Structure formats: C-alpha cells, structure tokens
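User: Hey, my collaborator sent me this sequence without any context and asked if I could get a structure. I don't really work with proteins. Can you help?
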Amino acid sequence: MKIEMKIKHLIISFIALIFLNMSVMSQNVNPKREFRGAWIQAINGQFRGKSTGDVQQMLTNQLNALQQAGINAIIFQVRPEADALYASNIEPWSRYLSGTQGQAPNPYWDPMAWMIDECHKRNMEFHAWINPYRAKTSASAQTDPKHVTNQHPEWFIPYNNQLFFNPALPECRAYIRQVLTDIITRYDVDALHMDDYFYPYPANGQDFPDEADYQRLGASTFANKGDWRRHNVNVLIEEIHQLVRELKPWVQFGISPFGIYRNQKSDPLGSDTNGLQNYDDLYADILLWARNGWIDYNIPQIYWHVGHPAADYGKLVDWWAKHAENRPLYIGQSILNTVQNADPQNPNQHQLPLKMTLQRRYQTVQGSCQWYTQNIVENVGNYADLLKQVYHKYPAIIPAYTFMDKKAPKKASKLAVIQTDDGPVLMWTPPTAKTEMDKAVQYVVYRFVKGEPLDLEDPSHILAITRNNYLNVSAAEPGQYVLVVTALDRLHNESKPAKKKVKL
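Assistant: No problem. I've predicted the 3D structure and written it out in structure-token form, which is a compact way to encode the shape of the chain:
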C-alpha cells in the first residue's frame, strides 16, 4: 500500500512538474505582434539648459538602451505647457529645453524632427505627446510675450497654482486644433498622444472655478456640471479624431489615461478599486471615446503593484482587458513600482514576471508602455536585462490597426544576396504603391533552415525589422537557408512573403 502511494505521489509530482514547465514556457513565449513602448518626458527638466550636443547625446543613449531592450515605439513629450520642443510659429520654444521660454536652442536644432529621424533609424514609431489643456505648470513661471496666455488671457482659468485652457470655450478647442494641424502636417509623426491630464487633478477639495461658464454655457442643457465637463472634453477628442483622419489617415490618435476608469462604489460596472477616477474626477470618458472610435489605442497607467489594497494591478488589468471596446489596449507600466515590490508567491523576485504573465494571458491586451525611460537606461532591478533576455527576446511587429486600414502592401521582389566585406547582404526591390496608405515603410526579414516549416508566426525566426531594403544575413552556422521578406505599411499590415534560397 505504501509503495502504491509513493508511486501515486511520484506520478502526481511528475504531472505537476510538466504543467509547471509548460507554465514557465508559456510565460516566456514572445508574441510576434506586440506594442512595446516607452515614454520620454521633458517636464522633469532632464533637458533644461543643456547644450544641444549634450541633449542629443542623452537622447541617443536613451534610444540605444531602449532599442536593446526591444522597445518599438517612443512617446516623446513635445508640448508640456502650450510651448514647443520643436520649431513652431504658433507656440514659443519650451523652457524645458532651453531654460527660458521663447529662447531657441543654441546651436539651433529641432528636437522633434531629430527624434523622428533617430526613432525611424531604429525602426521605432514616433508618437508626439502633447498636453492639451495645461498652459503653465507653475503660476510664477515666466512666459514669453507671444505665449497664448498673454495673447488671450480670457481663455484661461487659474487652479492650484497652475493655469489651464478653459475646456468649455470653442476658441480654445480651435486653437488646440491649430497647433495639432501644424504638428501633423509638418512632421512625419506616427501617432499623436495625450496622457492623463484633462480637467486638472482635484486639489484639496477645491472645485475647478468654472461655475459662471457652466451657468452661461451648460446649465440649460446639462443637469449637472460633471456631465457638462465631460461633454466639453468629448467634443475636443472627437474633433481631434476627425482632424487627424482628414489630414493624415495613417496617423494614430492615442490616450494614456489614469489607471482607474470608475470604482464600483460609483458604478457597478466599475473596477474593484478605491481611488481617483477618470470619469468623475478628470471628466475623461475613456470608454466612450474607444466605443465611438475616436481614439486608436488606449494605454491606461496601471502604476500599482499586484496586491495594492486600493488599486490592485491584476484586478485593473483584468477590468481593462474586459473593456477594451474593440480598440488596441496596452498597459502602462511603472518600472519603479514593479521592481520595488516582491511577487507575493515568490518573495525573492520582483513583480515583472508576474505582471507580464498576468497581462499576456488576455487576447485584448496587446502590449506595454514603460514609465519611464531612465529606469531602463539604468537597468533598475535588472528590468532592462529581463526585457532583453526574456520578455522582448525576439523582435515584435506592432499590432496592425486594421480598423484604420486593412489592405496589406504588395510584396518585395528581386531578392538577391550580395557578398560584401562585412558578410552576405540580402537586397530586395521595394513594392510599388499608389497611395501613402499602401506604401511599404518597413520590412520583416525571417530566416529558416532549409527544409524547416516556414512558420511566419514564430518570432524566433525574425532576423530584423528594418526600414532599409537590405540586411546583413550572416549566419552563425554555415548551411542552406531560406530567407523570407515581408513588407509592412504605416499601419503594420504585412504583405505576402517573398522567398530566397541561399547558402550562407
């Protein structure tokens, strides 16, 4: 009897070990398509007052570190407070760049144009990050005479030692659209991005002082001020969506809201949380925007840890995954929060493995965005190493925005291998295109051992994703291979494959 029990226990243990190994393997499987973004901010002052060369070197180091960690999209702050980290004839140069608002960088350069080039060289998307309503982060900050707060002081509302565009005024919306039109038409941005700042975060129980505007503009139509404020923001979001589609229909418009939409105590459909709310406190109805197709992606900032008593990461990922509203959903990650908290089931490791396991179990969650970049540069908690070696081990294509366009580009042609001093180089002819939407802007190069199934869904076979029409294809082991090239358009639709048998 004891022998039978031991055999039974051994069998159970063996089965459990198999399932454990399968679980670990499933955690480490990298999807072929995944958004892997990172935010680069200006408002922390990291560029302020530095020379052009120093800022460019800093950004180069950051982009190189992000590229090595597998990041494929950069969200770069270009408009912190109705100012510009780019050459604008509408708004003054940002004090977060030169140190003084209105003062051009010296030697002169255009950070946004430079960043777009550098991101595209590294096969990363560039998302232009703007703050729509904030005009002064500090009431005492000196502004340039041409700053909009000096040109139209009647458009602004002071609150909590800051200054904000009045969201109720059509003139403010028209001005914001003018700024965005300038950005989109003059720069080759891949996306326009807004974070969590709409109506300002409530301070010390003080109400935002717009009662007179509500009585004048909203009281006859809206039963309460909250509905009216949400309407004001809704109008802006819908107008921006329409503007972007009209100007460049391949440019995405995305939002990164605060991590809680509503708590269950406010709405039975809300999350099992107890914190500030987008809908009730910032007047941002994210689900409505996604449901109506006004935004093209959503990156809720779930900056808490698994087990947080008021805002548990796992509960929030689950809630957002069930409320994606047919729009791409990515998770905003706090690197410091992740590495400073231990896995409840494994106290010897931090929470990155747990968080990646949780979010990758949902089909509606299609990637992450990292806050913030310097933590990756410094490899805090070995975070960058883990991304590089495990979670971003293979390159990933950004998910296709098929609701914007689902037509794939034509395939590449005339594949040929040229022997060079640096090794064999695969070259190909880009496909022809009639419109910008059909144009190939990137290529995916796969490599397979001759006779191996050509499984293009397996990212371990991706040699590179590149904007060039050539690639060094040196192999570690000499042999017969099949090289495959596919083309990607601006919205990441993938063409049919072109193939070349080669001996390397």
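In plain terms: The two ends are 61 Å apart (CA to CA). You can pass these tokens on to your collaborator as they are.
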